Amino acid sequence: SQALLSGSFLRQVPLSSAAARQLWEHRRRLRPRSTGGLFFGTLLAGKIGFLRHARPADWIGFLASCARHPAVAWATLRAAKKHPATWEFLNRCTADRLAEARACGFTELGTGTLVDKHEPLEDMKS
Fold first, then answer.
1. Assuming Cys at both sites, which of 3, 13, 15, 52 could form a disulfide with 40, CB separation 3.0 to 4.6 Å?
2. pTM of the predicted model, to two decimals?
């Protein structure tokens, strides 16, 4: 599930406040808007402070979606408990990739380090 992937990323990978803001802004620009996965991922990861970057419109959209589809919202919130092997696998793999990155000097995702797969990379344009 997208929420489990998002949760394992948010649980394992340190983000600067600027990178967290940039991630929320990116998900807001997507059509359809895609901030719901950040809410669920944040709740699964237990990184509640990440929600400070959510705007009122994000909250309204998330809560409205949960009200329209309560069974889906409940199942998503319980995904880590219902699928513990998948949750642990994703967290282990993310932690392993983070350890590899740290061995190469990585400390945290900062401003400008998030890449939009729909945008060409600057150094690959030439």
1. 3
2. 0.85
